Amino acid sequence: MTAELPKTSVAETLARKIVALKAGGLPAATTRKCEDLLIDVVGLCVTARNEDYIKSALAGCDDDGPCTAIGHTRRLTASGAAFVNGTAAHGEDFDDTFEGGPVHAGAVIVPAVLAACERHNPDGRMALVGIAVGTEVLCRLSLVVPKAVHKAGFHPTAIFGAMGAAAGVGAALGLDAKQIVDALGIAGSMAGGIIEYLAEGAWTKRLHAGWAAQSGLRAALLARGGFVGPRTVFEGVHGLFHGFAHTTQGDYDALTGDFGTRWVTDTLAFKPYPCGTMAQPYIDCARRLAARGIKPEDVAEIVCEVAEGTVHRLWEPLADKQRPRNGYAAKFAVPYLLATGFVHGGVGLGAFTEAAISDISVLALAAKVKFVIDPDNPYPNNYTGHIKATMKDGSVIEERQPYLRGGAQEPLPRQDVTDKFVLNAEHGGWSNAQSDATLELLAGLYRSRINLSSLRQ
Hints:
Residues 12-247 form the MmgE/PrpD N-terminal domain. This protein is α+β, with helices and mostly antiparallel strands. The chain has helices at 10-19, 28-47, 52-59, 78-91, 106-120, 124-141, 148-151, 156-172, 177-188, 204-224, 240-245, 253-256, 280-291, 311-314, 318-322, 327-330, 334-344, 360-366, 414-427, 432-444; strands at 64-68, 75-76, 299-306, 369-373, 385-391, 396-401. It has 20 helices and six strands. The strands form two sheets. The chain has a four-stranded mixed β-sheet with strand order 4-3-5-6, covered by helices on one side. Strands 1-2 form a two-stranded antiparallel sheet.
């Protein structure tokens, strides 16, 4: 028996609220966060531009066109640029995080909207609206059935990213409500992304953001051309949540209820370290422990209290997390990351080379790190850190961190975001002059006609 369809679907309610938003009508805090996203994402594209996975991504593109692959002279179609830039922005796992998800919005939405606007509507004001809308949709979708998509074996950024990109590109290109509903419906059939990359540190997580960006862009263009998608894409008996969360029962009001009047985008977190988000507070705890003057060789054991929902990605199999198979796997291995932060005073882009993951002093400490599940851990609403270190003399020292540094409770100021951009650009081989010129361009991009030609270098 076919279920009775709603008179007004979730996508239709959302689309009406999206088209009601006007250029210039965003709150100042949301505009500022979208400015930070632009700076952060462009810097991340530059830092990854010479990496093997980006060379492979470019080699796999045979769709040259007029759009900018940031940090490269070669130009691509809009969808190709969205794919390469999204893959680059997410590639080093140094991009923003929405703590309630967890999802990574900037690496999907900024590449999708920039490519769409560069090709079809080079209006900076509409790019700003599109980035705000796409980010908001992606983040809010992660609140409908929290943790369920990850638990089902899928990457939420990939699944919800396609939907957010479709909404963001639709808003940036001025699609009407019906077209946005169609775009969302079409994107539902393009969403995908399994998390089996965790097994051996394969590269597929890196392309999830890029694939979602180009999928959402294509969905929006198809809808603009008249292609029809299912209006019950979210709540339908065979809809997005049925497919990727194994339920159609969710808090859809979290998506549509106060959309456009309250912006969760304002709470986006920017990472201090280029690795898994939930690991970051543990690194901070480790650094504070080392700052007490404790030596790694004095430690007998470290036990961390963790959220059950993070175990399958960041803690198990424990032996692999203590001694990662490769640099990318190390980004999702808390024992290794914690030990690196303790031994070297931090975790930077250089912590994931073959030499770094073979560091004997780091591996010796990582082998002492274990975990216990804290049933009261507030994840995913809040990311906490905890270390209980037992010394060889029997003494016990603990460190706790109640929230993610760089997140809603301790946001990074604009100068820190800019400093991160400069460091990322330097890592990608850009000169100080190139960085300065790019920062000047980005400062006015939302107020002018979009021209990204200076980023093709």
